[in-house]
Each structure stands twice: as C-alpha cells, then as structure tokens.
Amino acid sequence: MGDVFDPNRGEVQARVVLGDRSVLDRAIAHARAAQPAWAALNPQRRARVLFRFKELVEAQMDELAHLLSSEHGKVIADARGDIQRGLEVVEFACGIPHALKGEYTQGAGPGIDVFSMRQPIGIGAGITPFNFPAMIPMWMFAVATAVGNAFILKPSERDPSVPVRLAELFLEAGAPEGVLQVVHGDREMVEAILDHPDIAAVSFVGSSDIAHEVYRRGAAAGKRVQAMGGAKNHGIVMPDADLDQVVNDLTGAAFGSAGERCMALPVVVPVGEETAERLRARLIPAIEALRVGVSTDANAHYGPVVSSEHKARVEGWIAKSAEEGAEIVVDGRGLVLQGHEGGWFVGPTLIDRVTPEMRSYHEEIFGPVLQIVRAQTFEEAVALPSRHQYGNGVAIFTRNGHAAREFASRVDVGMVGINVPIPVPVAYHSFGGWKRSAFGDANQHGMEGVRFWTRVKTVTQRWPDGSGGATGHDAFVIPTMG
Ligand code: NAD
Question: Given a cut of 80, is residue 107 above it in pLDDT?
C-alpha cells in the first residue's frame, strides 16, 4: 500500500494498492481478450472513441485539474495545461486513419507490386513519472490504442488518481473493456512488466538511471523499448537578445511547476560578462517578485514540490552549490507558508558563478532553482549543453538569425527552441531528447509514436500474366528487378 500526499499540507489524502505480477497477469488476460477485435475495427471507428474521449475529458477539465493539482502540487492553470497538452496528442490520434496509410509501389518488377502496412504490436505498456500525470499517459495510450493495441498503464504511485479517471473516461467513450487498463505499483510492478512475455513494447518516462535500467532489462527480454530520462536544459542568452522578454521567459520556464519539468530551463548561459551583469540585475527583482503559494491559489506562480524527500533533495543541491563555490544570489531554502506549515514549499533560488566542473551543474535538481553559467563566447555557449550528460532541450535567445541557425544545427541536444524557452514539440511532431535523456529508438507521439507502436509488414505480390517467370537454373538465382 502506498500513501498519496497533498503536498500543500504534507498529509496523506489517499492510499494506492501497489500491485504485483498476479495483478499484471489479470490485466494481460483482459488485454489479450480485447485486442484482436479492437485491432480488427476499421481505424475510423477507433478514432471515434478518441473523439468522444476528448469531449469527455474537456467536459471534466475543472474536476480533473483540481484532482491533479491536489496530488502533484502544480497550480490549477498549470494542471489544466498538463491535461490540454495530453489532449493535443489525442487530437493527433483522431487522425490515425491517415497516419496508418502504408506505402505502395506499382510495377516494382514485371507484374510485381509492393505494399507495406502498419500493424499493431499487440499489447503495449507505459510507465510514467509523477510530474505530468495526464499529459505523459496520453502521449502513450492515445497513439498506442489508436493503432489497434491494448495498453497497460503503470502511472506514478505518487499521483495515480487522474490516470485512473482518464482510463474510466476512455471506457465511457466506448472503448471495449481491456483495451486500456491501469495497474498500480512501484519497482516490483515495473519489473513484472519488463519481464512479461506477452508485452511487446514498453514506453517509459522518468529519471535517467531507472530509464537506462528499464531499457536494458526490457530490451534483454526482446521488447521494443523507448525510455525517456532526466534533463538539464540550458538557455543561451546572446548579447543582442531582448532581455525583458528573456527574463519573462526564463522565470516561467525555470520556476513554473516548481521546476519539476523535464523541459524546464534550470541553467542560463549569458554570453559575455556585460550580458551576464545586465541579465542578473533584471533577474533578481523578477525572481524576488514570484509568489509561491498553495496550488489552488490563483495568484501563485507555482506551488509545493512533490514530496518531503524531494524538498530536502532540492535544498541539499542549493547547499552543495554553495560548498562548491557558487554564489547563492536568491536563497529559497527554509520557506514556510503561513497556515500551511506542513507543505513542501521551496522558494525561488538564483545561483550565479556556477561552473561546468561542479556536481550541482552536472546533476538534475528538478526544483525551483536557476543556475547562471557564464560563457565568454558563442563557441563556449554551444559547447556547454553539447558536452552535458543530458540532451533533452535547449534554447537560444537572440535577434541574429545566423547565430540561431548555427546553434540549432550544431548543438548536441534533441529539442531546440529559438526564442522559445520550453520547446516541447506539438503533438504531430515528436518529443525526445538525446544522450542520457533518452534510451532506445523512436520518440513520443507524432509519426515516431505511430512507428513505435506498430510493426511494418511489406508484401511483394506478383500476378503472372501467363508468359512465365524464372525457370530452370534462373529460379535458383536471387531475384533482381533487372
Ligand atoms: P522516477 O524515475 O522516480 O519514476 C518514474 C516511474 O518509474 C514511476 O512510474 C515509478 O513508479 C517507477 N519507478 C520508480 N523507481 C523504480 C525502480 N527502482 N525501478 C523501476 N521503476 C521504478 O521519476 P519521477 O520522479 O516520477 O519523475 C521525474 C523524472 O522524470 C525526472 O528525472 C524528469 O526529468 C523525468 N522526466 C523526463 C521526461 C522526458 O520526456 N525526458 C518527461 C517527464 C519527466
């Protein structure tokens, strides 16, 4: 049994039964029973379920956002954004008949045509993190089910209620029982999923060490695995950038959702000392003006972090930065909200003179902490995110098109923003980082998602016209198209 907390108060508000292999076996039996008929429906009929699901979720947006916020701690407007970004993938999946069209070549040889079709992989599973309890499950199950699979979702045990509500609404939208199921659990359940012979593909999103292990274990069991990991995204500020806009973008991207986003921007790299000084002077008042509050406070910029352990961890990294010689410019440690003394709040923190050798730079902090790493040249600025162990997202702020273009093409990172601080690709493109931010093949959603959740079958057909094919010795030679 796991406890589900309200991070605003630091109190248990629900319990979740953590399942084991026998729970998974029951879910697999339902999935196996449901999947062939679901796959046999024409894709338009499956898409209709997704259309209805989208309407049902929209109708319950407020209730879902409040539930999400109460377990995660993100403010209500941000919780709505979490659900909305997931729904955008549902909208993409509503177009699945078009996305499933295969390729066709007429006359590949005499009387020979070749065509390919995309078929579902059977049963897929998704293992999701706490920080986007609506969006990330929808990244996965919308596409996986639309192409004809059954799907088993193992959400984070820290905020499992919204994923359960989504699965209920999917059923209400007309999906047959067994097509989308939720199982709860922690490591034991994840290992059962990775080892289960009936699950063909696993999508994981979470921290990098676990992502790597999930990838290793799932691949060793012969599964297709995509495992997205942690991040440490940099924002490069060129001397010609519009600093008012940059400060506005940076505060939102660094502190929104208490920094608990894999596409947050926790490192800013001003290019040149003058840019660094000008930026720092503007950042300090902007950060000091941020309002930290309970997640239902409509005026709060962000709420509590997810757990007491995480609060201690984030504050530990601030202390570590100071020990390593960085300068704590705004210190958010020890914040207590009156009336919510038990809540897990961390004030916004700005740390300057961070250098690439520091461990606090190397590791993901995942809290409301912005680090300044000063670069002297554009080359140094390109090298910083490129050499970092993570390669999820990066942004450059500039008015110079050539610099932006060079940066985008050379930087060793998977998702790039040009004057866009959180470059999360839209649903019909695909999401995925590089290096230790993602293990395995194929990104989330868009056509990469369709590719991940399907297998290609290629058919070569010949309808002889009676004039005869290869005979005698020729039939023993590998056929060529001449
Ligand atoms: P986490 O790695 O602790 O948990 C992710 C999932 O793994 C959960 O479902 C959890 O139950 C399960 N799990 C936990 N311990 C496990 C273990 N030992 N073995 C197997 N499974 C285990 O991550 P989190 O704290 O929930 O989420 C935050 C992390 O996720 C951050 O590192 C963040 O950067 C990352 N994240 C990455 C992306 C991305 O797309 N790259 C998106 C969102 C979050």
Answer: yes
